[in-house]
Amino acid sequence: MANTKKRIPTQHVIGFLLSLVMTLVAAWAVIGSDLPKMWVIISILILALLQAGVQLFMFMHITEESSDGGHVPWNMMFHGFALAAILVAGSLFTMSFGFDHGDMDMDDGHKQEQHSEHSE
Amino acid sequence: MSAEERTTGPLEYRTEAGRMSILGFWIFLGAEVVLFATLFATYAVLFGRTADAPHPAELFEPSMTLIMTFLLLTSSFTCGIAIHEMRRGNAKGLATWLIITLLLGLGFLGAEIYEFVHYVHEGATLPSSAYWSSFFVLAGTHGLHVTLGIGWATLLLIQLARRGLTNVTSRKFFIVSLYWHFLDVVWIFIFTGIYLIGMVI
């Protein structure tokens, strides 16, 4: 590890600041912005993925040299997240997509559309 | 198996056993991703089905959620610093930063318990509706993981005080740090998928 001797862990500080900024931007998009709902949902999901990336790459050393460049960790996380996406999107597709379950509060199609979008 | 013992690099990677343990833990984390994915899928499918209980948008408070997020995010950062100190060979720095991490974790847990109690008082209980069942199971499973992590790291701190930094203890600390960072990864998706989206829709 090249950076073992460094007093200040620069990478961690940058990662922490990035995470703080992304959390605040996501909160602002929901509370303060006038963007259309669909755009808000898409952008906060992208921010969530980026933040997960910060944790994995900058905090968890997923690709460090000592673990052979992170071949196995990278594989595990990639396949874990691929399965997660299939599970969530697949469940929504089979269970919710195009149906309103006869719910009282699901009466407009617009709402339903965003509902199926939100999980991905 | 112990044939190739390295003499350089972080202590936790020097023995074959250490490397295999860390690799095994990554496999476990892959399985944890899938565990939480099933809970997220359940939550997404049951979204909106609150029956007679309050709607989530009526109960979710941005300030409370942000406080919890910042507590956990900061604890993930301090946990990273703890491992950084460990790799500099500074056992005292490791212990100090890890204790700060655990205090932040306890703060998060306290906030979550307060939040759950508040929801229950408002009529959103576990058996009140399909939606709230899935909410409490998803957020509660994450809270349970945090609780376990606090207990686990506390036991490791006792071990550190007794044995000091060795190949074995540093491997254990590195693994608990992976676990702790992972809890923040899951929380980011709970924060976004449950709270933020719950406030939008």
Key words describing this protein structure:
heterodimer; A: 120 residues; mainly alpha; 2 domains; 4 helices; flat; B: 201 residues; Four Helix Bundle (Hemerythrin (Met), subunit A); 6 helices; 79% helix; elongated; QoxD (chain A); EC 1.10.3.- (chain A); Cyt_c_oxidase_su4_prok (chain A); oxidoreductase activity, acting on diphenols and related substances as donors, oxygen as acceptor (chain A); Quinol oxidase subunit 4 (chain A)
What does this structure look like?
The complex is a heterodimer of chains A (120) and B (201). Chain A folds into 2 domains: 1-60; 69-120, no CATH class. Chain A is built from 4 helices and no strands. In chain A, 32% of the residues are buried. Helices cover 66% and strands 0% of the residues of chain A. Chain B has 201 residues and is an all-alpha fold. Chain B has helices spanning 16-45, 56-59, 62-87, 91-121, 130-163, 167-200. In chain B, α3 packs antiparallel against α4 and α5 packs antiparallel against α6. The longest helix of chain B has 34 residues, at 130-163. The interface between A and B is large, with 57 and 58 residues. Chain A: GO terms for molecular function: cytochrome bo3 ubiquinol oxidase activity; oxidoreductase activity, acting on diphenols and related substances as donors, oxygen as acceptor; proton transmembrane transporter activity.
Q: Give the C-alpha Rg of chain A.
A: 19 Å
Most extensive interface between two protein chains, with residue counts? A-B, 57 and 58 residues
Q: What's the tally of helices of chain A?
A: 4
Tell me about the biggest sheet of chain B? Answer: none
Indicate the CATH class of the domain at 63-200 in chain B.
Mainly Alpha
Shape of chain A: flat
- Whole-Å distance between the termini of chain A? 36 Å
Q: Give the tally of β-strands of chain B.
A: 0
Helix content of chain B: over 70%
Tell me which oligomeric state these chains represent.
heterodimer
Q: Uncertain spans of chain B, ≥5 residues at pLDDT below 50?
A: none
Give the % helix of chain A.
55-70%
Strand content of chain B: under 5%
Q: Which series of helices and strands of chain B comes N to C?
A: HHHHHH
What is the number of E strands of chain A?
0
At the fourth level of CATH, the homologous superfamily of the domain at 63-200 in chain B is: Cytochrome c oxidase, subunit III, four-helix bundle
> Could you please say which CATH topology of the domain at 63-200 in chain B applies here?
Four Helix Bundle (Hemerythrin (Met), subunit A)
* Broad shape of chain B: elongated
Pick out the low-confidence regions of chain A: 103-120
Overall pLDDT metric of chain B: 92
